[in-house]
Design brief:
By secondary structure, this protein is of the alpha/beta class. It is built from 10 helices and 10 strands. The chain has a domain of 143 residues: 3-Layer(aba) Sandwich (Rossmann fold), CATH 3.40.50.720. The strands form 3 sheets. Strands 2-1-3-4-6-9 form a 6-stranded parallel sheet, with helices on both faces. Strands 5-10 form a two-stranded parallel ribbon. A two-stranded parallel sheet has the order 7-8.
Length: 299
């Protein structure tokens, strides 16, 4: 029985929710860490959940080296400490972006990694380091690749979509048909708890996603239902929208090429490996999880 869980990155969105979730069944110890060359950690816990790292920078103002220090070098130091310690479980929060920035079809764990950004490359390097180490028989290691995580306290594109519908503004990108996967924070916390408690789940790499992908148009309609408002979706010319987004790149408008891609891209992620491994269904559906997130935006 794992009684003491050490969590790095505990003050972030995922860390805050995960601590609240796990505190009902075990002692949670938040650890504040940052990369310092040649440092050694001494971990006194039954399990380590490594969430700390540098997130993807949409404004592109970060120094590339920051990603490698925070997401690769720091992970390497912490994993070395895990191997030296008596801790039984190590959970590393990677990302689907460590595999692919664009997806054709449905992304699975069998995909050969080909990350394009410093963020994704650094996470992939951390994964490779963990997988290259000889693991003692009594220890278990899980590399998690979540897709877009959402839940109470989450900011980002979902909040922007919500505000658009809440203000009664039309959604102008109705002509773009896409399907993408999401991950409710409730389902993420559930999976991590299962990994901590179920010793029969084999070590390895697992993708995390809710069961059903949704299109952005379906998201808009879902938000409208939650607000009891009629959502307005416009089918404007795709070529015209793309041209406007290019202007946005130079004029720093809310709609630019990168944001347009984020809002309209296909990014479907398979969760079949983790579902089979835990032998249980996820507690909330894609729609339920999103409605819980949208409800939190009202507060």
């Amino acid at each position: 029985m794992l009684k003491k869980i050490a969590i790095t990155g505990g003050t972030g969105f995922v860390g805050t929710n995960l601590q609240n979730y796990l505190e009902l069944s075990c002692e949670v110890q938040p650890i504040s860490i940052r990369y310092i060359p040649n440092q050694r950690f001494d971990i006194e816990a039954d399990a380590i959940i490594h969430l700390a790292g540098k997130a993807h920078d949409l404004k592109k103002v970060s120094n590339p080296q920051d990603y490698y220090e925070a997401n690769y070098e720091l992970t390497k130091q912490l994993f070395d400490a895990f191997l030296r310690s008596d801790a039984q479980v190590f959970v590393f929060m990677s990302t689907v972006k460590a595999v692919a920035d664009e997806v054709k079809g449905i992304l699975s764990e069998d995909e050969i990694p080909n990350p394009k950004t410093h963020y994704g490359i650094a996470k992939q390097q951390a994964e490779q380091y963990i997988l290259s180490q000889l693991l003692p028989e009594e220890k278990r290691v899980y590399i998690l690749r979540p897709c877009m995580i959402h839940g109470p306290g989450n900011k980002g594109n979902l909040n922007l979509l919500y505000q658009l519908v809440a203000k009664g503004l039309p959604w102008p990108l109705g002509a773009f048909e896409n399907q993408r996967s999401f991950l409710s924070i409730e389902n993420l916390c559930f999976v991590i708890k299962e990994l901590l408690e179920n010793t029969s789940i084999p070590s390895g790499v697992y993708q995390l996603a809710d069961n059903e992908p949704l299109s952005t148009n379906e998201l808009i309609q879902l938000i409208g239902r939650g607000l009891d408002k009629k959502s307005r979706i416009l089918n404007l010319s795709q070529s015209m929208i793309k041209s406007m987004a290019k202007f946005g790149n130079y004029l720093y408008l809310p709609l630019n090429s990168e944001r347009l891609q984020k809002l309209t891209e296909n990014y479907m992620v398979s969760n079949q490996k983790i579902i089979k491994a835990i032998g249980k269904e996820l507690p909330v559906s894609t729609e339920q999880g999103l409605m819980m997130t949208f409800e939190s935006f009202k507060k």
